[in-house]
Design brief:
This protein has six helices and seven strands, in the order βαβααβαβββαβα. By secondary structure, it is of the alpha/beta class. It has a single domain, classed as Rossmann fold, CATH 3.40.50. Helix 1 packs parallel to helix 6 and helix 2 crosses helix 3.
Length: 195
């Protein structure tokens, strides 16, 4: 699959010295897409959903007030970015065995019934099929994919829930144990990605 439009999402709280940001840089360079959309969750923090947001979201689109439309505008923009991209690259630092709060806020704003998934008689169906995701994972001591890694499993589930089932991982895990070896292994994983 040749990447035309890539959505890059950086979730690390660190703007400098971030392994996931370095990995997403490498992945974007490797894929060399025509267009890169960038969403930096540290530079532009997203709001948490609240009662007003939930009320607006569950109001039928044609019945929404101007205030409700404005309340959903940020979420609509995030969903549009996902829709426009054929490849999504997510920098995924593992914080306390899970995803950063900034990334959870993004998930809450894009997982919307009727827009990114729908309920059917056979259960939920993701509406973003045919897209590819690459998760650039970094951790200090948590082995990616292990029983104590709730971040990677969660992200794969959420992406699959909205229809993105082609999910690849580039892992620089257990950096506190052997940073040189894990960074070398991650760089090799990037090199093996299909452009």
């Amino acid at each position: 699959m040749t990447t035309q439009t890539l959505l890059r999402i950086d979730a690390s709280a660190r703007r400098t010295g971030s392994v996931t940001r370095d990995l997403t840089d490498q992945i974007v360079a490797k894929l060399a897409p025509e267009t890169v959309l960038t969403r930096d969750l540290a530079d532009t923090p997203l709001p948490q959903i609240d009662e007003d947001w939930v009320g607006a979201n569950f109001t039928p689109a044609d019945d929404r007030s101007d205030a409700q439309k404005a309340r959903l505008a940020q979420s609509d923009a995030l969903v549009a970015e996902l829709q426009a991209a054929d490849t999504i690259v997510i920098g995924l630092p593992i914080y306390n065995f899970g995803v950063p709060a900034a990334l959870k806020a993004w998930i809450d704003l894009v997982a919307r019934a009727g827009l990114t998934f729908r309920y059917t008689a056979d259960g939920p169906q993701g509406l973003f099929e045919g897209k590819r995701a690459i998760l650039a994972v970094a951790s200090g001591g948590t082995k990616a994919g292990s029983e104590i890694d709730f971040a990677l499993r969660y992200m794969k589930h959420v992406l699959g829930f909205i229809g993105i089932t082609e999910v690849e991982t580039v892992a620089a895990d257990r950096l506190a144990i052997d940073a040189d070896a894990t960074l070398t292994a991650a760089k090799a994983q990037v090199a093996q990605l299909a452009a």
